[in-house]
Amino acid sequence: MDYQLSDEEQALFDRVKDFADTIVAPAAYEYDTKRRLPLEIIAQMGELGLFALPFPESVGGLGKSYFQLCLAVEALGRVDQSIGVTLEAGVGLGVMPIYRNGTPEQHAEFLPDLIAGRALAGFGLTEAGAGSDAGATQTTAVLDGDDWVINGSKQFITNSGTPITKLVTITAVTGERELPDGTVKKELSCIIVPNGTPGFTVEEGYDKVGWHTSDTHPLTLRDVRVPAANLLGERGRGYANFLQRLDEGRIAFAALATGAAQGCLEEALRYAKSRVVFGHEIGRNQHIAFKIAKMQARVHQARLAWHDAARKMDAGLPFKMEASIAKMVCGEAAMDNARDATQIFGGYGFMNENPVARHYRDSKILEIGEGTTEVQLMIITRELGLVA
């Protein structure tokens, strides 16, 4: 794999980094305290074409690579993980399922606004008893004439309740299938539920430890009726299709975590060179210098990991194991760097207006979301042919 950025890739990263430093970073603390997604910043991201990056021009996209989307996510994650994950989830969980599995009619109805960043979409997979075990889904969808009637609930759904949220794609049990060995398995399908549909309630947002600016809600569906044509992809293929989206999404999630680790490194390095204690900069103390050296090593390792996975994905090569390795390595790098940066700042690092304090709160979810570290270890051991 080639770990060097092309001129085009470097230009994109520099452009998004400048946007992050000049527009996103100055507003990050304000919106974090308000716990509100800044729609004006999302609109500017749309104007920059960030939501359009990995989609072909035939559907209104920019025809760029998934790798380039991940570069943008990393650049944003340096200064505000909430904004970075809004892009990551907006594309990977919102637009990508409709682009990959949607009909021409669904493309025409939903893609223009989503790809332009004028609207957002969520993906309703997780339930109280069905997170990592998506096969335990309890939400049901029953055909009644020309409609699906949906009942159930979802939780932890990103981008599901913003003023510009257009839809949520949900997974639901649409029947049962008998396997060749005689066992019966749930038939899981994906169905598009437009926001505002009667019976579809976006509940009050969560009081989260971090990612305060990111929009996250539980959802309730009571006798929700949507047209049969809102089935997304082949009936009974919802679980398989979503697993593929998760593999892709883990790479972008890893890029987000790398950005967070990089942001903590930059803040710690700046402070170590400017903070004077006992007559000299604290960065001259070996224990501080070594801590920062380890932070740099984590960032380097993390970036190589997600680059490798993304390059393989774009090249059409198998990447499942590499995506899980990247997600695990990068999430741990972000958490470890946030902890070390906070320690280097001392009391200042405990103040919420300090970017490292926000990264400290935000980074824990990077070891949980898109599959916990333990789930990634299960995937890696399976890919190696071991029993897990």
TrEMBL record:
Q: Which family does it belong to?
A: Belongs to the acyl-CoA dehydrogenase family.
Task: List the residue ranges forming a coiled coil, or say none.
Answer: none
**Record domain Acyl-CoA dehydrogenase/oxidase N-terminal: where:** 6-117
Name under which the protein is recorded? Acyl-CoA dehydrogenase
Q: Acyl-CoA oxidase/dehydrogenase middle domain location, by residue? A: 123-224
PANTHER family listed in its UniProt record: ACYL-COA DEHYDROGENASE, ISOVALERYL-COA DEHYDROGENASE, MITOCHONDRIAL-RELATED
State whether keyword Ubl conjugation applies. no
Classification from the root reads: Bacteria, Bacillati, Actinomycetota, Actinomycetes, Micrococcales
Alphabetized, the UniProt keywords read:
FAD, Flavoprotein, Oxidoreductase
Annotated Acyl-CoA dehydrogenase/oxidase C-terminal domain ranges read 236-384
